[in-house]
Design a protein that fits this description.
The chain is of the alpha+beta class and 111 residues long. The chain has 3 helices and 5 strands. The protein starts with a strand and ends with a helix.
């Protein structure tokens, strides 16, 4: 199996730090995504969602991360996250926008 490449998009890393995420937490998230891959819960269109731990908070009270597992390129694009303690989920508008970005990425990589 090829090693995955993780690409944080936009403000992902800033948002990760803002919710209290450390480098170790991010590496745990990467490991979870590598384990789940395309089998993670579908979120909308090409997006998947994974639960992440932040510090001593477990996955249930941690964050949710929307990502695009681009099989053709063996690349994972990390788009957005939210703190489960503060937000119930992504809005429909956010999901439509993120899925549009997935399609743009797919078109660019398949040129």
């Amino acid at each position: 199996m090829k090693e995955l490449t993780f690409v944080p998009v936009g403000n992902f890393l800033r948002d990760w730090k803002n919710v209290g995420g450390s480098t170790n937490d991010l590496h745990r998230l990467y490991a979870d995504i590598e384990r789940l891959g395309i089998q993670a819960k579908p979120l909308f269109g090409n997006l998947r969602v994974v639960r992440g731990r932040i510090g001593k908070r477990g996955k249930r009270g941690g964050v949710r991360v929307a990502y695009f597992y681009f099989i053709e390129g063996v690349t994972v694009f990390l788009f957005a996250l939210y703190d489960r303690r503060k937000t119930k989920g992504f809005t429909k508008e956010e999901l439509v926008e993120l899925n549009g970005i997935c399609e743009e990425i797919r078109r660019e990589y398949l040129k």
